[in-house]
User: Which sequence fits this backbone?
């Protein structure tokens, strides 16, 4: 297996891949109040009735002419000044209305301000079972009891203990009352996301069985198939997360369970791949298939017996035109190979298809000599590099 090198420092066998505003209102105009002209009431004069006989007037009636005169004078005053009286009454009523409206508006403003103030100081109502308040001095002990409660997760047929640190990650701590008390909150969505993340580590894509149909009509199995797995009922974890959020703070124990569903592999040939690179580490040959058709074959040098090329199905995940490679030999001595060209990494750890200029052409197809990489002459390595792309499948087999 060869490993990339660069001006960066390396530790052990690790390697580094190079990275390629308001309109102003007009002043108010004072408009004079229109003068309301009230027409004088018509005065009807009734002619006096002719005297027919003398009338004796009682003594107390001597005051009647005086009273009548006063009444007429009062009537004239009221009639003459009726407009002024009307205006005074209008102002009186208007002022009263303004006072009432102003008082009503002020009351409304005060009520609104009071409501807003009350809303601002309304305390947060916690949900029973999902929140708890403890004295600050007891916080750590309470957290420890929550973290250390029995907690398991069974997925499919496999069971495991939940890490206390995972449970701690479900807790949200806030401080209240001047720091004398702390609140512990639980969010069911946080629990659900955490458990789904854990469950998905058990999800695997199926690995198809691959056979190659040779030009002579024969068939060769070059990769075994393996079943995959998926979550059969992801909603079950959501429901369990909601229920355990109600009891988590009581530290009574947690036991999650969810089923897995098998995803069977399929048996395919090279026609199932848009591009496929086959590497036979025994015959030391490489074959390129384009939409199922064999287009190129090359002699290669794979990993030496002490540093073999891994067997399996992989995909190219990185390509570099040139890079220094360095690593450690089986005997512990370091090596550095500068300016290695046309590199296509297919497996983390430094495994790649690349050009090899330091071996004689007579080695390719004859001797496996690499540190686990698949090497071939630079000119052929460039052809592979130009033809392949990120995601191309590489199958190594014996």
Assistant:
């Amino acid at each position: 297996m060869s490993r990339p090198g660069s001006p960066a420092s390396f530790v052990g066998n690790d390697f580094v891949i190079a990275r390629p505003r308001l309109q102003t209102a007009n002043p108010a105009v004072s408009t004079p109040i229109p003068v309301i002209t009230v027409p004088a009431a018509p005065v009807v004069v009734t002619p006096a009735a002719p005297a027919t006989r003398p009338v004796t007037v009682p003594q107390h009636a001597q005051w009647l002419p005086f009273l009548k005169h006063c009444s007429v004078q009062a009537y004239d005053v009221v009639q003459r000044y009726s407009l002024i009286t009307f205006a005074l009454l209008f102002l009186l009523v208007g002022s009263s209305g303004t006072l009432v409206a102003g008082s009503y508006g002020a009351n409304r403003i005060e009520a609104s301000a009071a409501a807003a103030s009350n809303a601002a100081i309304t305390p947060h109502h916690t949900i029973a079972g999902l929140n708890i308040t403890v004295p600050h001095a007891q916080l750590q002990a309470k957290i420890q009891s929550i973290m250390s409660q029995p907690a398991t997760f069974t997925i499919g047929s496999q069971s495991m203990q939940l890490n206390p640190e995972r449970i701690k990650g479900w807790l949200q701590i806030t401080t209240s009352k001047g720091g004398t008390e702390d609140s512990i909150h639980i969010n069911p969505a946080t629990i659900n996301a955490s458990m789904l993340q854990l469950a998905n580590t058990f999800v695997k894509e199926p690995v198809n069985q691959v056979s190659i149909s040779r030009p002579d009509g024969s068939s060769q199995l070059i990769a075994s198939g393996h079943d995959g797995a998926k979550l059969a009922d992801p909603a079950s974890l959501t429901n369990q997360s909601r229920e355990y959020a109600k009891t988590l703070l009581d530290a009574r124990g947690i036991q999650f369970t969810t089923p897995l569903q098998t995803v069977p592999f399929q048996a395919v040939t090279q026609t199932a791949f848009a591009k496929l690179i086959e590497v036979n580490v025994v015959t030391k040959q490489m074959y390129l298939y384009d939409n199922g058709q064999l287009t190129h074959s090359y002699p290669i040098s794979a990993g030496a017996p002490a540093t073999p090329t891994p067997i399996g199905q992989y995909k190219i995940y990185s390509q570099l035109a040139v890079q220094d490679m360095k690593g450690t030999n089986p005997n512990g001595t370091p090596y550095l190979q500068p300016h290695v060209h046309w590199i296509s990494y297919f497996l983390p750890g430094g495994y790649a298809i690349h050009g090899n200029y330091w071996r004689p052409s007579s080695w390719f197809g004859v001797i496996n000599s690499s540190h686990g990489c698949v090497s071939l002459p630079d000119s052929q390595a460039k052809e592979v590099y130009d033809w392949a792309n990120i995601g191309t499948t590489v199958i190594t087999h014996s």
Remarks:
- The first strand starts at residue 4 and ends at 5.
- Confidence is low (pLDDT under 50) at residues 2-72, 81-90, 92-102, 111-125.
- The CA atoms of residues 142 and 281 lie 59 Å apart.
- Residues 82-121 form the longest helix (40 residues).
